[in-house]
Amino acid sequence: MKISWLKRCCLLLGFLGYLAFVYAQISFRNTLIPAVQKLEASGESIVFDSLVIQQRTSFIAPDALQVLTDLLNPAKETSTNSIKSTPLKILSVEVILTHQNTGEYQLEMHPDRLILKGGNYGDLFHGAVTVSQLLLGNLNNGSYVLPERLKIIDRPKFNWRGMHLDVSRHFFPVSFIKKYIDILSWYKINVFHWHLTDDQGWRIQINKYPRLTQIGGVRSETMTAKNFDPYVGDGKEHSGFYTQEEIRDVVQYAQLRNIEIIPEIEMPGHARAALAAYPELSCTQEKLPVPTIWGVFEDVYCNRESTFRFLFDVLEEVMALFPSRIIHIGGDEVPKTRWNACSECRKIRIDRQLKDAHELQSYFIKRIDSFVSSRGKSIIGWDEILEGGLAQNAMVMSWRGTEGGITAANMGHYAVMTPGSHCYFDHYQDTSGLEPLAIGGFTSVEKVYKYNPIPEGLSPEKQHFIWGAQANMWTEYMASESQVEYMLLPRICALSEVLWGTTSDFPDFEQRLQSHYEYFESKNWNYRK
Ligand code: ACM
Ligand code: ZN
Prior knowledge:
The chain has a domain of 150 residues: Chitobiase/beta-hexosaminidase domain 2-like (Chitobiase, domain 2, 2-Layer Sandwich), CATH 3.30.379.10. It has an 8-stranded parallel barrel with strand order 8-9-16-17-18-19-20-23, surrounded by 5 helices. Strands 1, 2, 3, 4, 5, 6 and 7 form a 7-stranded mixed beta sheet that branches. A two-stranded antiparallel sheet has the order 10-11. It is α/β, with parallel strands linked by helices. The relative contact order is 0.10. Helix 5 runs parallel beside helix 7. The protein contains 18 helices and 23 strands. The protein binds acetamide and zinc ion.
């Protein structure tokens, strides 16, 4: 059969059009981390200089609208060469709050306007971050380039997309906490797990117990490198805490960036800073200093009634500061030495017919669980809280592998996965031996990217109990802000895509990371190259 000249031209044009369509999809997708669920782009590229927001609803508070506005005009702060001789071309953005809680946002580009729709502020925030990444990744001489027609429909896979930070081992000021929140929100992380207390420092002001920060917030020095034996200290006092006013400010800052802060108050172990301030809370009641070395310590809270009264008071103040429905109460690494030797702890075991120290630990956590539940909130704890029997309303954070998460899910409890194998960002990022000193392990960005939060062996009907996952940033070996950033970036980018549920092959992700490296540099965020 002969194909006419005209038909050949039509076929060729059709093919070129198809190629342009495919190219538009790819190039506009290339700047996004996490990748979106669904993106369609077509038409010519259009160039404009800025966006103005037209709010079609009056339900977005002014400070929230300001956050969205800043996101929708990102080059304002990053571009320095945008002096124009031609008239400004402005794209109007309509922000529509639909109040339909589908967990989804939609973006639709028309030649003259961009429509962003979401069911709540969080969805709109996600959409605005996506627009921001698209604009920055397609910036040309200070002008934005977008396709004439663009449609994105997007939603996250997991509910808990978390990142933790230990501020006990090293204290970081509010300015850094806000920077950390900025980074998390840029990757649509929605939970910041703020590890506020541990052996080496108590970092949250509690009005009823001022010595917690006056004494528990200060250690005389810090061991250097891994000089446990012989011990070498740096001779420099290390201290710091957040006032309640600062905490309220950070909570609000995070809320505007769609991040819920889950505070952690460690108990019954990792409590040496509190015991230094109030020795009467331990079994021996011996006066001990805030430790200057890392590790797991035998002195923990005693199970006596006055300790519970103290902890309830502390939690009351904590719950008043943090609007989160969930409070992290620690629960990990509790040596039973002191409890076994303590007459008061022994008496409780006998009176309550608890068969061993694990059941005593379960008793302790259940007391805390029922107190927190009585205030309309619930607890989450590290997976040791399963030992001796799980408290009624508790969620489990699975860190010693995936077993804890599987057990919790099989019992009908929600779990957050954070196994040491993939989610410990205090581990080395490569095996070259050239990395800055870290606690150990090996967790490369590729390893994080290939992580699946749904544990192997969990039956399909229980998988919805896996509420999400998070990475942990323990700061024993991170004394500076720039070192925390180095350990966070770019691994958090990989985790964000895992949690959003849009991972592809690793080389594709690596390619998309390139434009993010440029962004890190423009923001002065330190990262591992
Ligand atoms: C932990 O890493 N000790 C929870
Ligand atoms: Zn005791």
